[in-house]
Fold this sequence. Notes:
This protein has helices at residues 5-21, 35-47, 57-66, 91-102, and strands at residues 24-29, 51-55, 81-86, 107-113, 116-119.
Amino acid sequence: MPKTRAKKKDEVEQLVNKVKTSQSVIIAKLEGLKVNDAQELRKNLRKEDAQIVVVKKTLLKKSLEELKYELPDLTRLEGIIGIAFAQDEVTAAKILKDFSKTHPQVELSSGYLDGKVLDQVS
């Protein structure tokens, strides 16, 4: 069943609030990640007071436009996209990078640090 316009608006508002309240935001491709592996990634992030959510590109784009953030190149991301939020500069990026070493289907794409775009996080 498709999402209603109200539900999409609510998701955009939640995403805007998470981006606003996080010091760093990392966008990553999660296509092909198995459920158990995704749960392990979420667990690793929770241990460090960070989190990841899966979001559609269109809702991400609307959220970033609402915040008047510079848009990263989302065209190279196909499939499932995750956005990791953290209260410090490096936690989410470090955990995702370490996780991608053993799970090559996780690809870091871009992100934001204090509202400034970071393209091609490595």
